[in-house]
Specification:
The protein has 15 helices and 14 strands. By secondary structure, it is an alpha/beta fold.
Length: 418
């Protein structure tokens, strides 16, 4: 369920596979990767063995030459062809920025500079990606900015929607704590001056894509005008190499009650879902709001369930046996479903509805008569989703206290189970 492939020393190594296109295809898994500095790999280590097991044949290093000298390069191996393409021509120090600098506009401006300055190197990187018929990885230092730009260009040319491109960019937020810890280790335990260091707010990618449209008209026009490539031909080649039809059959879901050992997985799943919402302009959840203690408490006071498609986590939900914050004192006649979440782009279609049905069956098995849930009053799309699943609106709680110190209005929905 996690796009971040686990390594001991790499924090932002991700598979771009599975992302949907607007015409019913998806990016082929296991073919295109993005990463932080591969100079952290070493021969003979578990990380090196994990890396080689991916079958990668081409490495594109987007860093400055001085970064590669200081931070090391990917270790030599007969199977690897390595290309150094420094797309960023103007040095800037993110850690030294003042706290008043807004990360979104600041980073978007830097990305526009790179798009204008690094045309030769960006062109070469895109041509390499299009011409390689084996797994390829591109990386910079943190796998965020330069890597994020190249990922955005490739995904755009493949026909991936802008919201998904923005979502992919923001997933670096899951690696930010580790990237920050690495910086502190390299800098005698100091903390960067800029609170935005290591961050990848969705606003940065949204502003970058908007600015590219304003300046060039479209990503395709940029490729044609600034890079001197035939955008349609490049797009066709990338699509032939990197896309596959969306699957028509999916594995059945199985369910398992979560244990305290699953708490970190649940935090990761919720933070991923929150980033996806933010990329779509929905501010219902924020990353970092729920920690492991929250999920362990919910396991103790109620139930938490995980859904699996084969061996992969497809989603999760919480089941409460009372919910006074939203519903007030009630008889023990209902179960309350919370935090229904699926893994973006990898869960089988309809996973959310199937998890609802499974939760309802669990409630019914206890003899309770109703399944209840709530959603933000300002989220009519989610309300419509639950109504289509058989829930009806029965009220509104105008000042629900969700434990975050900021009451909010929610719509109350209920479904009879008999």
């Amino acid at each position: 369920m996690d796009r971040h492939i686990p390594f001991d020393g790499l924090h932002n190594f991700r598979d771009l596979g599975g992302y949907p296109t607007t015409d019913g295809h998806r990016v082929r898994p296991g073919r295109l990767y993005r990463a932080d500095s591969l100079g952290k790999l070493s021969h003979g280590t578990p990380d090196w063995n994990r890396f080689l097991a991916l079958g990668i044949r081409t490495v594109i290093d987007l860093r400055h030459p001085w970064e590669a000298e200081a931070g090391g390069r990917v270790p030599a191996h007969p199977s690897l062809a390595c290309h150094h393409l420094s797309i960023e021509h103007r040095r800037y120090d993110q850690a030294a920025q003042t706290p008043d600098v807004d990360p979104g506009p600041y980073l978007a401006e830097r990305y526009m500079e790179v798009a204008a300055d690094g045309t030769k190197e960006i062109r070469a990187a895109l041509e390499l990606i299009a011409d390689t018929d084996a797994p390829l990885v591109f990386h910079c230092a943190s796998g965020k900015d330069r890597t994020g730009q190249v990922a955005a260009l490739v995904l755009s040319l493949l026909g991936v929607p802008e919201t998904v491109i923005t979502e992919d960019f923001s997933l670096t937020e899951l690696a930010t704590p580790a990237l920050l810890a690495d910086w502190r280790t390299r800098n005698d335990g100091r903390t960067p001056n800029w609170p935005g260091f290591g961050r990848a707010p969705e606003s940065a990618m949204r502003l970058f894509l908007s600015s590219m449209k304003t300046r060039y008209g479209s990503i395709e026009a940029y490729v044609t005008q600034a890079l001197g490539l035939d955008a349609q031909a490049l797009s066709d080649t990338l699509r032939t190499t990197l896309l596959e039809p969306t699957p028509t059959t999916w594995p059945d879901l199985t369910y398992r009650r979560a244990t305290p050992a699953d708490a970190s997985l649940l935090v990761r799943l919720r933070d991923t879902a929150a980033l996806r919402q933010l990329a779509r302009g929905i501010t219902q959840w924020q990353p970092g709001e729920k920690d492991e203690t929250h999920f362990r408490t919910r396991m103790k006071e109620g139930e938490v369930w995980l859904a699996y498609a084969d061996e992969s986590v497809a989603g999760a939900w919480e089941l409460w046996w009372d919910d006074q914050a939203a519903w007030g004192p009630r008889p023990a006649d209902a179960g309350y479903i919370h935090r229904l979440m699926t893994t973006p782009h990898t869960a089988p279609p309809g996973t959310g509805r199937r998890m609802l049905t499974e939760a309802e069956s669990r409630i019914a098995a206890t003899g309770r008569l109703y399944a209840r849930l709530d959603c933000l009053a300002s989220n009519p799309r989610l309300r419509a989703y639950y109504e289509s699943a058989g829930y009806r609106v029965v009220g509104e709680q105008r000042a629900k206290d969700g434990g975050l110190g900021s009451p909010y209005a929610v719509t109350l929905l209920e479904k009879g189970l008999r």
